[in-house]
Specification:
Elements lengths: L4 E2 L10 H12 L10 H21 L6 E4 L2 H16 L15 E5 L4 H12 L3 E5 L9 H7 L4 E5 L13 H10 L3 E5 L18 E5 L10 E5 L14 H4 L7 H39 L3 E3 L10 E6 L4 H10 L2 E2 L15 H5 L4 H4 L2 E5 L6 H23 L1
Parallel strand pairs: 1-11, 3-4, 3-5, 5-6, 6-7
Antiparallel strand pairs: 2-8, 7-8, 9-10, 10-12
Helix pairs in contact: 1-8, 2-8, 3-4, 8-12, 9-12
The chain binds pyridoxal-5'-phosphate.
Amino acid sequence: MRNYIYMDNAATTKMNKVAFEAMIPYLAKYYGNPSSVYMLGDISSKVLNEARETFADCLNCSPEEIYFTSGGSEADNWALESAVRNYGRGGIGRNINGRNLGHIVTSSMEHHAILNKCKELENRGFMVTYVNPGRDGIVRTEDIHRAIRTNTILISVMTANNEVGTLQNISDIGKIAKRHGILFHTDAVQAFGHIPIDVKKWNVDMLSISGHKFGGPKGIGVLFVSKDTKLTPMIYGGKQENGMRAGTENVAAIKGMSVAAGEACKTMRKRGIETVRVRDYMIDNILRYVPGARLNGHRDLRLPNNINISIDGVNGESMVIMADNYGVCISTGSACSSKSTKPSHVLISMGVPEKECFESVRLTISEETTYEDAEYVINLIRKLVKEIKTHTLA
Ligand SMILES: *Cc1c(COP(=O)(O)O)cnc(C)c1O
């Protein structure tokens, strides 16, 4: 494959080299089942214990509060399902004559793993309020507060958005949830390994993580569940994950993910400062040199690696396809919506006019992005904008 510049780290990340190498022995040599009593099994179960400790350190919780899942989507689904089963009325939530079985407050800019699960819960008789963020892509804590009803059982608001990178006021929302005795979940898939997280300080009861968004492998993730929170099994079967998620653990992936987590947490501060510099260089220069370019999402309260811009009169999808011809990987928004022609639900939720929602491109850089890469991409965007505009006028 030719050389390319990868600026789509919100979709997935390259595996951390140390993490990748740490996985291999657990595929090739130490293949024991963690549940087996002999030494080979012990070696595998030790991986699980150590991994739980790594995540506990990164999140400020205890290792028993860490559950391994198949990724962020499963963690999100599990958190919501468990909340309604344990805290909603009517057990599994049968919809009896449209009876209201409990109410959930979330935001309209969540990932589809939350939004589509919420739709499913609505079909089963639960009520959901989708709070819109402001034009800056930040959900107002007062709006969350105002959405609370007497039968609200759960608040779920993402820590950082995957399209515009905006950071939410999780600790403020956590305070409100705690004051009202309402369960609080946050999808921290984009945030983990990129910004500091403290579940205690934030009053978070459940939190979702995905391995492949911070240098770990795909198909593995974590759900943090505080010990005071009731949990319903995700998969029934063996005793794995404290009897809450049956199935032989993906030992190698858990190893890879936990090493990546350790590396990410260790280098977060330094990496953040460096990435922010390149991010700001790109934002400033795109806004300066690309006519009709506007930044989507708050200028500063955003992930260190996120740049999301709309360019007047330039179709985002065309830009992404043309950039690919130059070996530049960018996106129009979330990977799930980039194959459809619907406008981004995130930009719509922020009140961005529909026309501008089709004109957006997302660039998510990494610590490996150099100023040279940045310069190349800025110039490429300038060139492509000219081409697209000429073409559109012709
Ligand atoms: C990627 C992502 C998910 C889904 O994680 P998977 O491991 O791919 O299932 C959920 N939420 C957010 C915010 C994401 O960015």
